[in-house]
Amino acid sequence: MRAVLHKDRVKVRIVRSDRKGRPEGRVVEIIERSSQPIIGRLLQESGVWLVAPEDKRYGQDVLIPKGATSVAKVGQVVVVELVEPPALFGQPVGRIKEVLGEVDDAGMEIEIAVRKYSVPHEFSEACVALARTLPDKVRPQDCENRIDLTDVPLVTIDGEDARDFDDAVYCEPASKGRGKSAVKGWRLLVAIADVSHYVQTGSAIDVDAYDRATSVYFPRRVIPMLPEKLSNGLCSLNPEVERLCMVCDMFITSEGEVDAYQFYPAVMWSHARFTYTEVAAILGNTRGPEAAKRKDRVDDLLNLHGVYQALLKSRLKRGAVDFDTTETQIVCDENGRIEKIVPRTRNVAHRLIEEAMLAANVCSADFIAQSKHPGLFRVHEGPTPEKQEILRNYLKATGIGMTISDDPSPGEFQAIAEATKDRPDAQQIHSMLLRSMQQAIYTPANSGHFGLAYGAYTHFTSPIRRYPDLLVHRVIKSILGKTRYQLPALPTPGEAHAKLSRRLEKGLAARVGEPGQKPKKVSAEGMAWQAAGLHCSANERRADEASRDVEAWLKCKYMKEHLGEEYSGVVTAATSFGVFVTLDALYVEGLVHITELGGEYFRFDEARQELRGERTGARYAIGTRVRIQVSRVDLDGRRIDFRLVQEGEGLIGRAMVEKGAQRESKARAAPGGRGDAPIDARSASFKAESRKRVANKPGRTSKAQDKSSASPKKAARKRR
Questions:
Q1: Strands 183-193, 242-253: parallel, antiparallel or unpaired by DSSP?
Q2: Could you tell me whether strands 62-64 and 48-53 are parallel, antiparallel, or unpaired per DSSP bridges?
Q3: Helical segments of 580-697, H only
Q4: 590 close to 559: Cβ distance less than 8 angstroms
Q5: Higher confidence at residue 299 or residue 181?
Q6: Nearest Cα residue to 593 out of 710, 714, 708, 719
Q7: Which of 114, 174, 296, 459 is 20 to 30 A from 87 via CA?
Q8: Which residues partner with 130 through β-bridges?
Q9: CA 53, CA 661: separation in Å to the nearest integer?
Q10: What is the pTM of this model?
Q11: Domain 563-719 sits in which CATH superfamily?
């Protein structure tokens, strides 16, 4: 392994299996070296320049020759390009390609993340030049062959910090038919920014948008999919200006069923820009101060609430999954440091817009499917047989008295969630239900959306920030114009898409009727759409990982100021090496290692998802409330370690518990010790990594320093 680095492609020979039956191998050939640059901090030791990678998966420092340090200074964060790969008896050698700045510079964590995950963050010169040629406002020629909706009071409803507005909505009471047979309901208009009018297929802007595939959201910064002139200007449905849009015009019955719909290009004029908080306040009190400021729009909002209640009936009837989960928002100061972490509450306005967007997305999927035109669907398949079995065992072990069938429906999951919502372990149960499901992907092969209980579903409502939505708009336009949309020549999906590709292949094979029968041969056009789906799905994952990485760094930086302090929290995950705890007040997650749980032997129960002490019977499962102390923060590893605090326990008591746990751990590891200990090789390496420090390196902490920082007394003295 000394001759390879993270992301190298290698050929491996399996040589043996360990005692748990896991295969172990040997690298026999290096097939391809990764071309991705390495980000790290420049250090100097005994006259030798080297870069310590920020991503610890690289495992080796990179040597930098004296003439290849550029203008970088010791301790700065740099981007390194490898000149020589590692060898069995030699470290990798590189040259500094870019200097990012000091590690404490505001926004440095974002600069690191975009390079670490290869997120495109600079538009090409051709893209910028083309964006400059676009008009600043809607021109008369742009409005040709469009429905004029400027007199319809469409409004946007978004968050307080939103800068681009994808969608606008309007609703009014309506009826279909005449006399006694008339069906009463609602006419709902969902107008979406017409990005496809300005971003032509194969243009420089389109190439950059496809490369990004999605906007990436960080605290205080967004890396947009489109240039700012489009995303915040020409395509954004800003109030009181003309904008081009694609409209999904629906008739929805009082029972929430979409009885009819049509799509058409239009020109609109947003009559107001609302926030979710403002709409919720108006709906909560139509005679309050917020309603008085917007009295012209109150009736329109009440109509929107009426169609929302109808759509909610339909949601409940079809049994769509709806778990209550807590999302958090990081509030930063001017320097980019966390000021506080607050829960993101979903009010009636959030749900109202969500249901309207779901209705438009379903109509889009149905329109594409009915026309038999290829396109990208948003597919969410049900749980795999393996995950079903784990969930059944868990439900049985916890004595819920309900289970899922061999071919479960989303209604079964929702029924379990509804039946257990008042139990003290409701959060634990809902978490297990959520974990049993697969991630949604983009694919031209429609197999429905399990979680939302739709037979066909796609994304139509956010073309400013998602490339699949832009493709859906183009397909709908081509169907309306009785033409066929052709994808431009797209790059072949790389190794990053291999996992998703295998999953798609398995899904196709599973849908084949006869055993041994091969799936139908996919045409070149079908392969192109599949490649586009893989690319968009993989880049969606990349954006999520980059965002989570930045949030984890900020939380670690925040918790470094709270070392030694005690908090109450709840267990959110149990593993063989410990439990993860989320703090009540701060919404930050950290690990309580198994050796910090007490001086006894703990066994991991996979069925119940809990750790149980053999001597005392102490249980730590998802939902268990605990009190912890912040013992250690590892910025480089993005990890926070907690220590369990017993009621009335002092420092001496904690030390005795820790020593007892260490003695028991050593006894198990010794010859003749317990062979069935749940702390396997991965657990041991995790513990070792969480305690490891490199002494006397700039910006790193020695073992002595680490102990002092972990001590509550010394930490408190340091703060004073």
A1: antiparallel
A2: antiparallel
A3: 651-669, 681-691
A4: yes
A5: 299
A6: 710
A7: 114
A8: none
A9: 33
A10: 0.83
A11: Nucleic acid-binding proteins (2.40.50.140)
